[in-house]
Amino acid sequence: MSAYTPVEMITYTGSRILEDKKIVFVGTGLPMIAAMHAQLTHAPGLGMIFEAGALSPILDMGLPLSVGDTRACRKACYLKGLCAVFELTQRGCADYAFIGGAQIDCYGNVNSTFEGGSYSKPRTRFPGSGGAGVMAASCEKTIIIMALEKRRFVKKLDFLTSIGFGDGSPDYRENAGVMGSGPYRVITHEALFGFDPQSKKMMLLEIAPGKTPEQIQEKVSFELRISPKLKPMRVPAAKDLKLLRHVCDPEGYFLTRKVN
Amino acid sequence: MERLNRGLMVSSPFSGKNTYLVPACYPDVGLLHVTAADMYGNCRIFGALCTCPEIAIASAHSIVSTEQVISNENIRTYPNLTEIPYLAVDALIEQPFGAYPGVCYGHYWFDMAHMQMFRNASDEFRKSGNKNPLKKYYEDYIFGCETFDAFLNKLPPEIFEKITQLDGGQPIIVD
To answer: Which domains occur in chain A, in start order?
Structure first.
């Protein structure tokens, strides 16, 4: 079994932080694979929500290619539409929102709309919110996947798509009329971040083997807090890689993509 | 003038908490495809509803295509299964494989090769500015087809069996 790739490290880390018997609202791609892997290992009772309308499906026909794929409906416990599943989140039923993005700031606010220029004339236009904006505003905790690069870990977002801790003030989320406790983890292939409970600023919790906190700081535009209990990231074992490659995403739809 | 965000923060008259309001959406025309419908436009949808019922009801005019037309008697046997009522539907078209190359729960899955072909042509236009592959796609499959069946007739005949198998026979109730 060859060494793990950056994408596999991200997916494995995503799986490992999902607890059993919780509900995770998953976005397209790596979050779905991470949740599948978690179900097959330490979290058999983990339930998934897909924004097209499925609650707790059994994905025995294979990986859905998007949250709108009919495979995401397979053997679900409840299958309605977008309004029904977002109502579940607004009633406090979803423990995790699991999203991706293009830029993040130190308070866990996320941009997945555009980079550079203006909204009308962007340098790069991204797909946009999808469900992420509402997920981050109504699920209990937000988990974010991001490539570890200076141009993505920014001091100021070009656009705020998904709300985090806003400006970091204590009542920001409540005043903004949103629910949930906000950003929880930020996953990259070289570092796992959380948030300092007081300042609400991003905090380095774990680093990949062989990396130093200085090397991680190099790739982040804002000043990182470092956890006093800084730990090494666990790496996927051979059995995890086997599951990821042969069971979760055997066609390599998402796992063979590059972290960019 | 483009308005980026028309939302409005208000104090809830009930709880006093900050509550964010967004304006309702009033489309002029809604276009959607459903699993089954009767001749009056009562629609049954299997698989995730996404926002299909909301689109149909919000739109001033809704045009619905359906995999098959079923009897009104069948609709009335299982009224719980009607997701869009007849009064929201202005026009109904029976069109098997009407969601192709997309997916229709209980009938067929995506044609990934066809979608990839369209995507490659789009990507080339986006990245290099070369619009010829995308133009050819539109000429071949859209402008060159008088009807949807003409479009389907341009596809390799074996594809329909393949995408039907890929659905895996997800159960639906249509009779």
So the answer is: 6-248 (3.40.1080.10)
